Amino acid sequence: MTPIPNLNIVPFVSVDDMMRLVLAIGAERFLTDLAGYVEADYRRWEQFDKTSRVAAHSLDGVIELMPASDGALYAFKYVNGHPKNTRTGRQTVTAFGLLADVATGYPMLLSEMTILTALRTAATSAVAARYLAPKGADCMALIGNGAQSEFQALAFKAMLGITRLRLYDIDPAATAKCARNLAGLGFAITPCHSIEDAVQGAGIITTATADKQNATILTDNMVGAGIHINAIGGDCPGKTELHRDILLRSDIFVEYTPQTRIEGEIQQLPADHPTTELWRVITGAAPGRTGAGQITLFDSVGFAIEDFSALRYVRDRLQEYRLYQELDLLADPDDPRDLFGMIQRCAASTAG
Amino acid sequence: MTPIPNLNIVPFVSVDDMMRLVLAIGAERFLTDLAGYVEADYRRWEQFDKTSRVAAHSLDGVIELMPASDGALYAFKYVNGHPKNTRTGRQTVTAFGLLADVATGYPMLLSEMTILTALRTAATSAVAARYLAPKGADCMALIGNGAQSEFQALAFKAMLGITRLRLYDIDPAATAKCARNLAGLGFAITPCHSIEDAVQGAGIITTATADKQNATILTDNMVGAGIHINAIGGDCPGKTELHRDILLRSDIFVEYTPQTRIEGEIQQLPADHPTTELWRVITGAAPGRTGAGQITLFDSVGFAIEDFSALRYVRDRLQEYRLYQELDLLADPDDPRDLFGMIQRCAASTAG
User: Fold this and answer.
1) Phi and psi of A197, rounded to 5°?
2) pTM of the predicted model, to two decimals?
3) ipTM for the complex?
4) Is A199 helix (H, G, I), strand (E, B) or coil?
5) Taking CA atoms, what residue in A is nearest to B210?
6) Which of A63, A225, B31, B342 could bridge B155 with an S-S bond, Cβ 3.0-4.6 Å?
7) pLDDT greater than 80 at residue A116
8) Does A177 touch chain B (CB under 8 A)?
């Protein structure tokens, strides 16, 4: 048996490392390559051990653990959702995650996932839209111009050819921020003063608002035939963005039905309302868009496999980019049965 | 509102930090103080949001997430169990954990937990034994002399006055290692050549073997009246250490019945066999030891509240001992809605 060096060390990708990785690879290429990982993992959906997230709810928010495994790799993400956090300068959502080797249980990568979740969410939206959006759509309405908006814009530019953006947010400062950040990146950007205005001429409508309540961002009359709706803001019980009538006119695509019934837009519908899981469209087991007049809805809540894919993507970039630090996370005594002796030897080495 | 500095930073206690913390505090005091935290948290058992661990099983082992929350703090532990790992020089069990603030969902501490789990397991055993072991017992048989054994010995010395140890392991090298590590720490140590020999004169029998199979470390004839058995090696389905007949003669105490039915010694018994949860003994709701002839059994599998207590204990020692590093784990843009802009500014600062 070959001795394995540094069994105690786990690579850690910090927030700073992740920013530099995005900059080194380029945001659009990062999103496109990551989308390839997400699509590849959805394609082998049936290999995964799937569980709904494990949530700890409190008055102020929720803390969730999202595990997933394909039998060779295991991943989980820690993620919180606390809408009031912005009042104290904190993020509504922060996250970190871990990738581990199923054969040994040893962690292989610890990574920040606040930025990475924003990237994987946008990449997944674009994967779904490639199967569901009307062909040739080059204009997207972006309703909700917060932390997720620019990532969505870039993923749809890189993967679907969206070059025209129509922005709307209840807070004009958010729209201005989004437009400023995307300036010079190849978009024709139109800030809009109403949702009705924003959806004009858009083949794709992305809703990414953050209200933790049953809101009605889109009403039925705003949604014309042939539109693809990418609804990513409704993602927990009691938080939805679309009027129920839109759902009834749409063909609804989801990540994992049992989770989306609880957390997605379809929490407004009876539990037997038909849905199609995205992996079935990707594998060809079910049709995506079938006609020019069809309204398609991707009712996205975020699923653990996407985090698995994202951590796998980052792990595969470690050697090339070397943007990580080495974390002394795992005890590694010379004799695995001698944990206590390791502590004693630490004392001896310190004293000596 | 007062700005909070360094919202991105989470203190990280590495393996090296944890060893130095144990050495700085002293193992016996660490165990005793930690036991105080465990006992205090068990005393307010009903405040906790309790769930069984979330396990991902594979052919070679298991990866588990163990969450717990008291409504103000949230903790989870990642822990693996892979018996074959020792063949490649790895630990059977490694672990790390996180403590977070329920009000914001923000992590407060990331810590190695391989060493910390060994400490909290021993501390919990000693808490239970204070309520269950025969009064005045000063001799303990320690069956299984692996990674957990020295921690058990020291916890029972510090908290119950155990000064005589009778050691047995199927591998004499493990016994020699345990005896060597404990030399000079205040014990009279007797290495034994059989389990029958080891249990002679012992008021407490601790079993801490690692076989992943239904083993029979203790048979019925080895266990006399009045003994306390501290059984910590049986901790997953199919892994037990005690003959069923011992269980039938014992009053059985557990951490959390639903989990222990699946993972503990009592998986050998019908699902309605009576057990007493430890917290009920600690709060006085149920009796512990009631007579000199009674056989008491603490069927310990490890419960998430103990990890919660352990992380809370370490968190409370950060400021005094300063044995941690600062981890850039959380994205902290100036404007929480401007995650993408934060990345762009990182590029600008690098280029500048």
Assistant:
1) -65, -45
2) 0.92
3) 0.91
4) coil
5) A337
6) B31
7) yes
8) yes
